[in-house]
Amino acid sequence: MAQMRELQGKSAAAGLAQGTLFVPRRLTEAARVAGNATEELQALTLAIDASVEDLSSLLTNGNAEAAGIVEFQIAMLEDAELRAPAVEAINGGKPAEAAWKSALDTQVAGYEASEDEYFCARAGDLMDLRDRVLRHLLGTAAETMPAGAILFDDEVTPTQFLEADWRQGGGIALRHGSKTSHVSMLARATGVPMVIGLGDVNVAEHRFAQIDGGSGALILSPDKAQNDRFDRRLKQAVEAREHGAAYLNELAVTADGTTIQVMINIVGPEELEQIDPNHCDGIGLMRSEFLFRDGEALPDENQQYRIYRRILEWAKGRPVTIRTLDAGGDKPISGVTINDERNPFLGLRGLRLSLATPEIFRVQLRALARAAVHGNLKVMWPMVTLASELSEAETIMEEVLAALEREGVACARPAIGMMVEVPAAAMTLDLFGHAEFFSIGSNDLAQYLMAAARDNGAVAELADPTHPALLRLIDQVVKSCREMGKDLSICGDMASDPNHLERLIHLGLRTLSVSPAALGEVKAAIHSLRMGEGGG
Amino acid sequence: MTEKIADAVTITHEVGLHARPSVKLTKLAKAFEASITVAAHPNGPWVDAKSIVKVMAMKAPQGSELFFEAVGGDAEAAICALIQLVEGDFGEGNADGADA
Q1: Domain end marker among A79, A108, A137
Q2: Which residues in chain B have their CB less than 8 angstroms from residue A269's CB?
Q3: For a Cys-Cys bond, which of A15, A134, A499, B70 suits B75, CB 3.0-4.6 Å?
Q4: Does B26 reach chain A within 8 Å, measured CB to CB?
Q5: Mean pLDDT throughout A405-430?
């Protein structure tokens, strides 16, 4: 039995999962014996037909975004033009797999060479098709993931995700991966625990693994003590979820009658498909940077507008706070953020970056102002340090509104507020009186206050949200907001942790924005709180 | 010899001739018997409008003009339907939240 090993990656989707490790084989590891041209043509046709059949079965899953990808892939496979060069090569004596691979590689190269980023990204679809047919040709297609397994690979495609059966549990652990990828969003939306960024590790000697999606840990070949710990945590998580589920439909009221607003943090509209708007008091934070995927075309005004509008319509009049692009730091976007910053967390990120790239900022503000017609929209600036930044951003918003009105485009002015995550702003909140609301980003505020980078495991313990420095600063922020008569919420991870709830509420916070998965647990914990009992 | 029918239309769909619009365009073309070709320039190159592989390979962005030619019994109806599809943003209005 292999020695237990614990690997630290990053969280892409919270939750606990354990199961057999499943590492998809590389296509080059398999081989087949080629027949004559007639046999090879038939083998290719069968492999393509089988691939179309796989894809067709995915269409019943009902996810609209996935359906668009799948329909396109089917149409490509069914088009005789796609296989024509391969057929020609087979007739010239080439084996089917080499002929197909070369034909599709040519297609992939054609898309990769495109200057239009959208067409460039289609290269991924063509690679997906190439490999799917190859797997059938090489007889490795039967290798579907066993239900309840932990999938380990470099990357995973949306079709792979949709093909797997997640009803019996299981999770995903990736060497690379990105929190904003389609797969990560699907994982969060369907509650499949997922860890990314594990790096170049070899898991060959291991058979069994556990994932802690929230902390980003992967445990290989757990020993008895670890198994017992994990089983206990799983049991607690199930109990907490079941206990919390009973409170989802209730208002969050403490045992002695104080009502707390509980909102949710989301990255995109896909997540909302699984959530009943009646279970929350609105959206406290929509991280709009998910729309700006690294390596893909920047979303244009209409694309953004439609997504914002979809979210506002889902909320049915409840407040929806959308944070403008918070790129930079650990969220680079090529062509937007500065490469090779020595210290990206202290660099050009958040609102600083938006003010430095007004052409991108204006597109987002136009989309937001147009969407504001469809609901209760609040727009929030990230990483504000100086009051002058706030004024500058507001001026651009006013210009955008004036331009839309001149063009006769329907628009409305959303409420405008800011994140409180830079200590300098938190300590001087009275200088930001023209913001209409504030929201504490506890993760960044803690990292800057404690001088402990979020992405560095060696100093992770320093960014302790219960350190008096953070608690005193939050206390000061609450008091400033009360004096100014402004709304305040907290949207960092701290708010989603029932262990910190009592402290936050005693400090005077009355609006929390939590991860959708924590909604029930947080509401249940609020119900058992008494304001009269000891302070935080 | 049947007459050749030709017409042109500008793509106003906000993302251009992307995956989903291409699927719709080729599906519609296939519904006609006429042989139909499409090009992004009046002088070609002309490609089979029933082939998604060829249509996608044109990589036509928003604002580009599409030229259609059809020969065959239902050529006129085919051109008319295809122009309508492109003019109507491939049946994907701004409000439906669909991304191609």
Answers
A1: A137
A2: 97
A3: B70
A4: yes
A5: 97
Within 10 Å of residue A71's Cβ, how many Cβ atoms? Answer: 19
Do A432 and A519 fall into the same domain?
yes
Q: What angle do CA A480, A484, A486 make, to 5 degrees?
A: 95
> Are A496 and A424 part of one and the same domain?
yes
ipTM computed for the complex: 0.84
Q: Are residues A306 and A336 in the same domain?
A: yes
Span between the terminal Cα atoms of chain A, in Å: 47
Tokens 């304001």, residue located: A531
Give the CATH number for residue A161: 3.50.30.10
CB A72 to CB B94 under 8 A?
no
Structural domain that includes position A425: 246-527
Q: Are both A173 and A35 inside the same structural domain?
A: no
Residues A126 and A58 in one domain: yes
Give the model confidence (pLDDT) of A304-344 as tens digits. Answer: 999 999 999 999 999 999 999 998 776 677 778 877 788 88
Q: B12, B14, B50, B59: which to substitute to probe chain A, counting the most A Cβ within 10 Å?
A: B59
CATH number of the domain to which A92 belongs: 1.10.274.10
Q: Which of B52, B57, B98 sits opposite A75 (nearest CB)?
A: B52
Q: List phi, psi (to 5°) of A439.
A: -140, 130
Whole-structure pTM value: 0.65
**Residue A359, CA distances (Å) to A182, A249, A367, A368, A382 in order:** 26, 43, 13, 15, 18
A198-218 pLDDT per residue, tens: 988 889 899 999 999 988 999
Residue B99 has pLDDT above 50, yes or no: no
Tell whether A269 and A357 lie within a shared domain: yes
Residue A529 contacts residue A502 (beta carbons within 8 Å): yes
- The CA-atom distances, in angstroms, between A91 and each of A35, A88, A410, B32 are 12, 5, 60, 31
CB A345 within 8 A of CB A383: no
For chain A, say whether B37 makes contact (Cβ under 8 Å): no
Report CB contact under 8 Å: B94, A302. Answer: yes
Residue located via tokens 């590790």:
A201
Do A254 and A156 lie in a common domain?
Answer: no
Answer yes or no: are the C-beta atoms of A18 and A206 closer than 8 Å: no
Catalytic status, residue B18: yes
Q: Does B53 touch chain A (CB under 8 A)?
A: yes
Read off the tokens for B37.
């070709």
Show the CA angle centred on residue A199, arms to residues A197 and A204, nearest 5°. 120
Query: Does the beta carbon of B4 lie under 8 angstroms from any beta carbon of chain A?
Result: no
A interface test, pick of B52, B90, B92, B94 with most A CB neighbours within 10 Å: B52
CA–CA min distance B100, chain A (Å): 7
Chain A hits for B29, CB-CB cut-off 8 Å, are none
How many domains is chain A built from? 3
Report CB contact under 8 Å: B23, A69: no
